[in-house]
Every structure is written in C-alpha cells, then in structure tokens.
Amino acid sequence: MNLEAESPKLGNWTTRDYHRRWLLDQANGLFDFFQYNGVNATGGFHDMDDVGNPLDAVNPLRSVHLTARMIHCFAVGSLLGRPGADEIVDHGMTYLWNRHRDEKFGGYCWSRNNDGQVDSSKQGYGHAFVLLAASSAKTVGHPLADGMIADVTEILNTKFWEAEHGAIKEEYNQDWSPIDGGTYRGQNSNMHLTEALMAAFEATGDKEYLTKAESIADLIIRRSAGSVDWRVAEHFNAQWVLDKNYRGNEMFRPSGTTPGHWLEWARLTLQLWALGGKRHDWMPDAARALFAQSMSLGWDNDKGGFFYTLDWNDTPAKREKLWWPACEGAGAAHFLNENDPSDFHEASYRKIWGVIGRNFLDHKNGGWHEELTEDLKPAHTIFPGKGDIYHALQACLIPLFPATGSLTKVIREASGRV
Predict the structure, then answer these.
(1) Are 109 and 117 in contact (CB under 8 A)?
(2) Alpha-carbon distance 109 to 64, whole Å?
C-alpha cells in the first residue's frame, strides 16, 4: 500500500461510531480515575501511584502545572456535561488562587506542600498553565477566572515577555531575581504558552493573545525548527541561539531533541493557523513536515512507540517510551487528517492508538501508564506514578471534534455533543 497516496483509501476512524464510542469510553475512564482518586481534601490534588493511591498521603507536593491541568481538564468535563466536574474546577481554582499565588511578590510559585512553598521559583512553564486553567475556567463561568486571567496576563507581560524576541523568558527566583543569570531560554515553556494564549484568545476575544501565539510559533517553528530540517530545538541562550550541548532536567528540559514536541507543535501550528484565519501559508507545510519527521525519526519501527529523545545525529538517546508523545501523536494525526487527509496520516493515527491500547492503557487498575521501557513494559525511572490526566484526556477527546480550536472552544460550539 502506498501510504503517500493522494486519494486516501483507508477511510477515517474518527468518523466511525464504534471508534468514537471507544475514545469516549477511554476519556470517561480517565475522568473516573482522577476525579475519584485525585482530590486532596486539604486542598489541591494528589499525585497517585499505579492503583490510584496518593504517592504521599501525609504531606503531598502540589505542583502548579498539575493543579492547573486538572482545572483545565475538568472544565472540559463540565462542558461535556460530566457530573461533579464543576466541583473539581472550583477545588482547583481555589487552591491555585489562595495557595500557589504569591501574595507578596506576585506570580505563581512552582510547588508547595501543607507547610508552604517547596520550590518557590517562578517558571514560565507554570504561568502558561495558570493562563490555560483560568481561560478554561472562564468558559464554565468560574467566579475567579476573570481575575486570574488578568493577574497572570500582567505577570506574563511585565516579567516574562521579551518583545525583541517575541517569546518569554524562562524563570526567576521567588522575588523575581534571575536564576543562574537568567540566560536560559526554552521552547517547552513557550510551546505551552502558545496553547494557553490560544485558549485565552478564544475565551476573551482579545487578539493580543493570538498575536503573541503567532509570534512564538514564528520564532520556534518557522525560523528555528525550519533551519534544522523541522526538528524542534529545545534549548537556547538569551539571544535565542541554539545550544546543542545543553544538559538539564530530564523531565522538563531533556538534552537533544524530543519528537513528542514535534508532534505537539504540529497540532498547535494547525490550530493557530485556523484561529488566525488561515493567513500564514507556512503553517500547514510546517505541521506536515514536523509530523513526518517525528514518524520517520522518532517512531520505533521494531517495537512501537516514540523514543523519548534523540541526539543531534537523530540517534535515539533516551529510549524510554512515554505516554505523552503518543498522546500528542494521536492529536496531531487527527488535526492533519482534518486538514490534509492522507493514508499516511490515517495509518499513523491507527498505529499510534494501537500502541496506546496495547501498552499504555492500564486495563487492570485504570488510568494510563506514564512510562514504559524501550520494550514497552511499565517503568518508573522518570515518572513515579499516575499524576497527570491532561495529555491522555486530550488525546481521547480531540479526535471527536473539528480541528478548529481548543477543546473548550470546539465543545462549546458543538453544545457538548460528541
């Protein structure tokens, strides 16, 4: 079979009732696992082990991005009509505003426990997710949403945004003094801010959010990724010069390149293209190239799944198979199928879901395995348990709706009908 055929012959699974029901069943399983296991009665949410028990029931760590992701996901649940979802949104928004927010210096600290701040740094990555959470909460009418959008937007504009580059700085200490000279710039925080800026634009109608999202994409995708054969570079100095030798946190700043981010950007670029009125001709071409490179270089043709990282010679470096690149691959394939139907995109979509169904879904305990070995066996070298609903839930729901915006936008437009 010619997978590059111009006239698709495979058809599209996302138009088939069975597949759509199957995806919704997986989404409901995730909602069940996190809604009934993840709520911490003292505030915030638990990180959980494989069977849904708290990793630390006595004094658990709460990270700002995970709090925000739960808010976003259960705002999606509310829009779909899930009972109890509004209570989860309220629980998370209250904790985000009263505990993660720094009343003394402004902004949102990275992590805390029952005793106070554990990591008091101010991360661009974390602030991106606060904006996403607040924007999603606004779509379901949460009373703190408008104030939080205004608050985090001011912080992003005054502390993080660098107009000369059209992207954000990375991090500060709690008092807004620089960390390590403040010279590191990273694409991961900017990628997630692009997602959040689009959600904020959809929620508020303020085009400044969309303009900033387009600026980031132009820098990181059109100019940077386009200059290295559509491999998304991760690490830069203060002038946004690529640093191929950077070594950092393997969860948030792994060395080399990360094919999962190429997939994530493929979807986000097409979403940005649609929201911007399809004005930027480079965006669909970039999305196709990013996806093709990820399948060509990042996919393990022998065992299945995406390698976590590659070195700059395109050789697999960290060979673990994480759940989130597979999730982003499913979402990207759907967006591409909606905009550029092909047997290559459809076959890739089916291949990715095959690995998810066989290997990442925990059919015994619920939820998804977040990390597998190269041989697709459950592991915990990077991720200690099941702490995150965000990637998996979006992977299940994105294919059920048109590829024209954030889940909150397209679900509202469909009046929650799947």
Answers:
(1) yes
(2) 7
Predicted pLDDT at 7: 56
Written as one letter, the residue type at 221 is I
Which one, of 220, 247, 239, lies nearest residue 231 by Cα? 220
pLDDT tens digits, residue range 176-202? 999 989 999 999 999 999 999 999 999
* 261, 334, 345, 369: the active-site residue: 261
Of the listed ranges 6-10, 24-28, 227-231, 329-333, the least confidently predicted one is 6-10
Sign of CA dihedral 347, 284, 208, 405: negative
Name the one residue in this structure whose structure tokens are 């390698």.
Answer: 307
d(CA 414, CA 418): 8
| 174 and 164 Cβ atoms separated by less than 8 Å | no
Q: Phi-psi region for residue 171, left (φ > 0), alpha (ψ -120 to 50) or beta?
A: beta
DSSP per residue, 148-208: HHHHHHHHIIIIIEETTTTEE--EE-TTSPBSGGG--EEHHHHHHHHHHHHHHHHHH--HH
Q: What is the pLDDT of residues 330-379, one digit of tens each?
A: 999 999 999 999 999 999 999 999 999 999 999 999 999 999 999 999 99
Active site includes 280?
Answer: no
Rounded Cα distance, 154 and 106, in Å: 10
DSSP state of 30: H
Query: What span, in angstroms and rounded, lies between the C-alpha atoms of 380 and 392?
Result: 18
Options 46, 65, 235, 391, the catalytic residue: 391
Percent of the chain with pLDDT over 90: 96
Which tens digit of pLDDT belongs to each residue from 204-251?
999 999 999 999 999 999 999 999 999 999 999 999 999 999 988 877
Does the annotation count 391 as an active-site position? Answer: yes
Angle at Cα 69 formed by Cα 135 and Cα 157, nearest 5°?
A: 50
Which helix (H) or strand (E) segment holds residue 19: the answer is helix 17-37
Among 353, 355, 349, 342, smallest CA distance to 2 is for 342
| Residue 369 phi, psi (nearest 5) | -65, 130
